[in-house]
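Re: [ENG-882] Designed sequences occasionally contain unexpected residues at chain ends

Forwarding the minimal case from QA. C-alpha cells:
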C-alpha cells in the first residue's frame, strides 16, 4: 500500500491577468490531479510571479497602474497567501526573480527597455525599486548566476543578453556588456543548467534554443550551439514583435514563450503559442548541447508552464485556455504524458510550483 501523502506537499500558483487573481492548487501525486485550493485577489494584469529561495514568500508584478510588486507570505501548511505589502516598480515588468540570497528582487521591462533592483526587507516585503538601468531593446527576462555575483538579462529587440556585475544589490555593466544570439532570434526566457555550466536561451521568433557556456569567474557567456525547437511540419513563418505585425497580416508566425529544464538537466521543454504546443529537447550531459525530440499539443496559447521540483510533473497554462493541464514526465525518455485538467481564471500567464517536503 502506498503511504498517505501529506495534505499539502506541493502547491501550484498561477497568475490570471484577466481576473487579477492568483490561483493555488495542490498537486496530488496519488491521483495525479491538480486540486483547487484558493483564489487570492491581486490586481488587474498580474504577471509575472517569483518565489523566494526559502519558499516563504511569493512576489507578483502588477502591469497596470500603479505599477508595483506585491509580496505575500506562503503558509507551508495550507499553501495560503497572506498579503504583506507592495513596492513601486518603474516600468511594466515582463519578468521578476529574486537573487539567490532572497534579499533583492530583479525585474525586466519589455516596454520600458530597462531592468531594476528592489530591496527585500527582513519581513520578506519587496520595497520600491532602488536602481533602474536602461538596457537593450525589449528586456524580457533577468536572473542572477548560481554564485549570485553576476546577472544576465535578455534583450529581445537587440538579439543579445546583457551581462552585469551584481554586488550589494547593485548592477553594473560587465565587460563585454552583452553576448549575442543569432539575428532575428528574439531571445526571451532562459535557464541555467543545474550544474551551472550552461545557459539555455529561447528565441521567441525562431523557437531555437541557444546554448552558452558560462564562465562563472567573470560572468560572461560564449555560444556553444543553436538547436531548433519546432518541427518543420508546423509550417510557421519567422516571428516578429506583435506590435510590428502589419494590420490584416494573419500569417501563422513562430511565437515561442517559455523554457524550463528538469532538475537532473536531462530535458528541456519549450512552449509555442501560435501552434499551442510543447516541445521536448534532450540534453547531452557532456557537451550540454540539446537536441530536438518531440512536439505535442497543449493548452491554447501556452504563455507559461513549470516543472515541479522533483522533475516528475509539468503544469501548463494558456492565455486563451479555461484550464491548466498536468503532465507526467518520463525520466528515461523525457516524454510528456497528459494526465488531467483543472479550471483556471482568465488570461492565465504564469506558473510557479513550490514543494514543502
Amino acid at each position: 500500500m502506498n503511504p498517505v501523502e501529506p495534505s499539502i506537499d506541493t502547491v501550484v500558483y498561477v497568475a490570471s491577468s484577466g481576473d487579477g487573481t492568483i490561483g493555488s492548487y495542490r498537486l496530488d501525486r496519488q491521483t495525479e490531479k491538480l486540486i483547487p485550493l484558493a483564489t487570492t485577489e491581486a490586481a488587474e494584469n498580474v504577471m509575472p510571479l517569483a518565489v523566494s529561495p526559502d519558499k516563504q514568500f511569493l512576489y507578483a508584478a502588477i502591469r497596470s497602474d500603479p505599477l508595483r510588486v506585491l509580496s505575500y507570505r506562503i503558509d507551508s501548511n495550507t499553501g495560503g497567501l497572506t498579503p504583506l505589502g507592495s513596492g513601486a516598480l518603474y516600468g511594466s515588468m515582463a519578468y521578476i526573480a529574486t537573487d539567490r540570497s532572497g534579499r533583492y528582487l530583479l525585474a525586466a521591462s519589455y516596454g520600458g527597455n530597462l531592468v531594476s533592483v528592489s530591496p527585500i526587507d527582513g519581513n520578506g516585503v519587496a520595497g520600491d525599486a532602488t536602481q533602474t538601468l536602461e538596457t537593450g531593446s525589449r528586456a524580457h527576462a533577468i536572473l542572477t548566476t548560481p554564485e549570485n555575483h553576476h546577472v544576465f538579462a535578455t534583450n529581445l529587440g537587440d538579439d543579445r543578453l546583457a551581462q552585469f556585475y551584481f554586488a550589494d544589490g547593485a548592477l553594473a555593466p560587465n565587460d563585454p556588456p552583452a553576448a549575442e544570439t543569432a539575428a532575428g532570434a528574439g531571445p526571451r526566457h532562459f535557464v541555467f543548467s543545474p550544474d551551472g555550466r550552461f545557459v539555455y536561451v529561447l528565441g521567441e521568433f525562431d523557437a531555437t534554443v541557444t546554448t552558452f557556456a558560462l564562465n562563472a569567474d567573470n560572468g560572461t557567456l560564449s555560444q556553444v550551439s543553436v538547436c531548433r525547437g519546432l518541427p518543420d511540419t508546423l509550417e510557421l513563418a519567422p516571428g516578429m514583435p506583435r506590435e510590428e505585425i502589419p494590420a490584416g497580416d494573419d500569417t501563422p508566425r513562430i511565437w515561442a514563450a517559455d523554457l524550463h529544464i528538469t532538475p537532473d538537466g536531462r530535458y528541456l521543454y519549450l512552449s509555442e503559442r501560435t501552434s499551442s504546443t510543447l516541445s521536448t529537447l534532450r540534453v547531452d550531459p557532456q557537451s550540454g548541447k540539446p537536441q530536438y525530440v518531440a512536439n505535442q499539443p497543449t493548452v491554447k496559447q501556452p504563455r507559461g508552464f513549470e516543472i515541479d521540483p522533483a522533475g516528475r510533473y509539468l503544469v501548463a497554462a494558456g492565455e486563451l485556455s479555461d484550464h491548466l493541464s498536468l503532465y507526467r514526465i518520463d525520466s528515461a525518455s523525457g516524454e510528456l504524458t497528459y494526465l488531467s485538467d483543472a479550471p483556471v481564471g482568465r488570461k492565465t500567464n504564469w506558473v510557479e510550483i513550490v514543494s514543502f517536503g
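QA comment: On inspection the terminal residues look reasonable. The CA atoms of residues 30 and 275 lie 32 Å apart. Proposing we downgrade this to a documentation issue.
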